[in-house]
Design a protein that fits this description.
The protein has 223 residues and is an alpha/beta fold. The protein has 2 domains: 4-61, no CATH class; 82-216, Nucleotidyltransferase, domain 5. It is 39% helix and 14% strand. Helix 1 (4-16) crosses helix 2 and helix 6 (153-166) packs parallel to helix 7. The termini are far apart. The relative contact order is 0.11.
Length: 223
């Protein structure tokens, strides 16, 4: 039987090769000669959509964010990567087809709900979910969050900033985020925790002009 780890490897290989439906993962990897890379003797038939779907459900039920975080922290330890700055951003994932309006009741994590919202792909006619991602300066993903499709950056950025700080990584100097981080909650968090914040001050804030004048009078700041 295809293990969860091998299944994730197969999905990652398929993603690196382009957008693939679950039903086409096995065929695509076989065409590329990648099936033997997963495991000697592995056959394309084991990479069927039903099994891959089971693995995705199992990962979500195990709290995907925790699994993801454990892997990321292990990678930091093994490769001795420094994380002085944590970069936070969001993107939207466009969805096709019909989805349940409400998440099924029961124990365990609640999946993000597909909904209409501002699409970063320019497809406001399709439903979406929001992916919130925090990465190291080297681009290593350290935290992720799946949110309902209508969630705005203004709502997500403060939550994401708190989750970045909660990682408790050694040597963190601060967070890098877009202008949505220029708000009392993220600013207060950084002051409280003693970490820096690099962000873009919105043009609607009077202090921006003062900051621009100050910046023109100083050289580049060491980061």
């Amino acid at each position: 039987m295809l293990s969860c780890g091998r299944g994730v490897e197969a999905l990652l290989l398929a993603i690196l090769d382009g957008h693939q439906a679950l039903s086409k993962v096995g065929a695509r990897l076989e065409e590329r000669g990648m099936v033997p890379l997963l495991q000697p003797g592995r056959q394309r038939a084991s990479l069927h959509a039903y099994r891959l779907g089971q693995l995705l459900d199992a990962l979500f039920a195990a709290h995907l964010n925790r699994v993801f975080g454990a892997i990321a922290l292990h990678a930091l330890e093994v490769y001795a990567l420094a994380t002085p700055w944590l970069h936070q951003d969001t993107t939207t994932i466009t969805l096709y087809g019909a989805y349940e309006e409400e998440a099924p009741l029961g124990k365990g994590p609640v999946p993000p709900r597909p909904a209409y919202g501002h699409s970063q792909d320019g497809r406001d006619d399709l439903t979406q979910v929001l992916l919130s991602l925090g990465v190291s300066s080297d681009g290593l993903p350290l935290r992720l969050g799946g949110r309902d499709g209508h969630t705005s950056d203004s709502t997500e950025t403060p939550i994401a900033s708190e989750e970045c700080v909660a990682l408790g990584l050694d040597g963190v100097r601060g967070i890098v985020a877009d202008s949505k981080a220029y708000w009392k909650r993220p600013l207060g968090l950084c002051l409280e925790q003693g970490v820096g914040l690099i962000t873009l001050v919105p043009r609607t804030c009077a202090v921006r002009e003062e900051v621009e004048i100050w910046g023109q009078q100083h050289g580049a700041l060491p980061l």
